Every structure is written in structure tokens, then in C-alpha cells.
Amino acid sequence: EIRDALAYCRVTVQHDDDLAFERIYNTPRRGLGESALRTLRLVQRTQKVSLFEATRRALETDELKARPRKSLGDLIRNFERWRAMLDGMNHVEVVETMLDESGYTDMLRIDRSPEAEGRLENLKELTNALQEFDSLPAFLEHVALLTDMADRSDTDMVSVMTLHAAKGLEFDTVFLPGWEEGLFPNQRALDDKGLAGLEEERRLAYVGLTRARKRAYVSFAANRRVFNQWQAAIPSRFLRELPTEQLAESSDAGLYATYSAGHHGGLREQASGFDYESLGVPGGRRTRWRDETADDRRAVQGDKVDLSIGQRVFHQKFGYGRIVAVDGNKLDIEFEKAGPKKVLDSFIEAA
Fold first, then answer.
1. Number of domains forming the structure of the chain
2. Element holding 232 (H helix, E strand)
3. Which residues, 6 or more positions from 174, have their beta carbon under 8 angstroms from its beta carbon?
4. What is the pLDDT of residues 108-159, one digit of tens each?
């Protein structure tokens, strides 16, 4: 019951917490089975969004049956309302209201098992503990810290931290991801402080590298999804400043290669005509990039079907039909047997 209550709190504070949402989306029971969850997961995968957002998008279509749609619609609206209540109400009252309105407290009250009364008492202790914190997010951070400490053991583990937090620490192996222009060095630091900001970022790069006693793995992405848009990434200028005699390079086939690797076909010296010299980065050994191909674009954009009004399509659930209206990724389709339905384009294919 404590884990369930914490899951409700986590989704209220952060809608995109998929594990918490999946834990309580049908607790207490709301008539939601595996079929509804499969539909939500399919929307989540195809749209590349959180489970909460996938539910919100599925509610705008006819993919869900009437009863699951109503139950999920009520749940989504409740979470949005509880989150808004945190701005004007005491967080303890909000949690108590949330547990009552969700039906969770009533579920325990009608439970006739010997443990039911103790579970209700545990919920009361939870709300008492909340009073010691200024806000619900502060309480959840404290719980996460305690959980992390409780899970620690003498076995090997990974410590995740910021570069600032790593100062003064050392590890045998260090992983440094995200070495891309705009990300590291951070574009905001460059815009706000200019060269001073660049030097600050360079010092952070030095801090990160020197945390490693034996090995440091530095990585960057060829493409990164930013604000739901795929963008080509340019490797950080700091990579050009690393001592070449200390480096061992590798990349996925077809993305990046060095002169020393001997891959020359279809490669060019700079990505998208980018000029490192304009950043004040000295010359030296250069990394080569392969020109973008149609296969690359398909890998990034996915195999999308061009859809138009009047086109005959097939839906796994509703069968064959014709498109009567297109609104972004939502389609109004007149199905031959199921009648008019609104569906997501990721669920249909050309007939």
C-alpha cells in the first residue's frame, strides 16, 4: 500500500513516470485489462512518448473501448486536477484527497482480510511523515534517497552524477556521454558568458576526464531527439583537444570512422559542412563522417506511409476503410464494417 500511494504521488508530481503509472493505472480495479495496456504501449512505442501521454492521445481516438476509455479519461483528469491542487493546497491534504478520490482508501476499508486495518494505519503514517516536508516533491526526493541507500550493497554498481558533483571523487572507470556541440559545451553557457563560459565548460571536461583512474569512455550521438524533433549532432570541440596518443576510437558501422580505421568510401571530412576552425578549435587529426543516405533518413524518421483523403487503408482492429479527414497524426476513417472512427496513423497501413 505504501508503494502504491507513492506511485500515485510520483505520477501526480511527474506525469512521465511510466513505472509508477503502470503500477496504479488499474489499482484499485477500474476494469482495465491487458488489452487496454497493450494499446497504450503500442501508442507509446510508435509515438515515442510516456505512458501517461500515450493514454492522453489514445483517448482522442477510438482505439479504446468505451469502458476503458471512460476509466482512463477519469484517471487522467484526476491526475491533472491533483497536480493543479498542489499549487494552492497543503500537500498533505492533496495526498489525502488523492487517496480518497482514487478509491484506494475505500478499497482497503472494504477489505476483510486481517491485514487491511494495518494497511490503513500505514497510510495514516505516510500522511504523518509528509507533514515533516515543505512539499510533495521534497518528500519524494527524500524517499528516493532512502531507497537508493537501502538498495546499496557490496556488489559492483554504477554511480550517476553531474560533473559538478563528481569533483573530488575518483573511479577506475568513468563514462562521459553527450559530448556534442550545444550540449557540452552548453550553448546557454556560451550565449550568456561567451569565452568565459567556454573556459568554464572546458574546466568541467577536465574534471570529468580526471575522475578516471584507469579508463574514461567519452561518447556522443550521431542524432539526438530534442523537443520531439530529431537533430543531427556535431561532436564536441573538446574531443579535438584530447591527446591522440591516449585515444582508442570506435563507432557503430556506417556512422563515424577515423582516418586510421581505413574506411574511406562515402566519407567526408566535416559533417554538414561544419567548420571547427570557426570555433577556434585547432587543427589536427580529424574524424570523418559519412554522407547521409536515404537509409539513414528512414532509420531516423521511420517508415511512414504517405496518407491522403480518400485513400483505402487497413486497421488491425476495424478492418478496411477510407480516410475522410487528416489532422496531424490523427485520421478520421469511414470503415466498411466498423463505421466512422478516429485513429492514430501509426495503427493503419495502406491497403
1. 3
2. strand 229-232
3. 208, 209, 211, 212, 215, 216, 217
4. 888 887 777 778 888 888 888 888 888 898 888 888 776 665 555 556 778 8
**Cell numbers of 147, please?**
531507497
Which H/E stretch holds residue 22? helix 18-24
133 is written with which cell numbers?
A: 516536508
pLDDT in tens, 25-41: 888 888 887 888 888 88
d(CA 202, CA 214): 21
pLDDT at 256: 54
Question: Read out DSSP for 240-300?
Answer: GGS-GGG------TTTEEEGGGT--TTEESSGGG--GGGGT---SS-EEEEPP-HHHHHHH
For residue 163, is it within any domain? no
d(CA 7, CA 5): 5
Grid coordinates in use for 152? 546499496
Place of cell 490523427: 330
Give residue 346's domain range: 312-350
Are 199 and 84 in the same domain? no
138 and 255 together in one domain: no
Residue 276, C-alpha cell as written in the block: 571547427
Same domain, yes or no, for 21 and 117?
Answer: yes
Claim to verify: residue 181 and residue 122 sit in the same structural domain: no
> Domain with 112 in it: what CATH number?
1.10.486.10
Percent of the chain with pLDDT over 70: 81
H helix or E strand, kind and range, residue 176: strand 171-176
Q: Does 108 fall in a domain?
A: yes
Average of per-residue pLDDT across 261-270: 35
pLDDT of residue 184: 93
* Domain boundary pick from 276, 299, 322: 299
Q: Is there a single domain that holds both residue 221 and residue 287?
A: yes
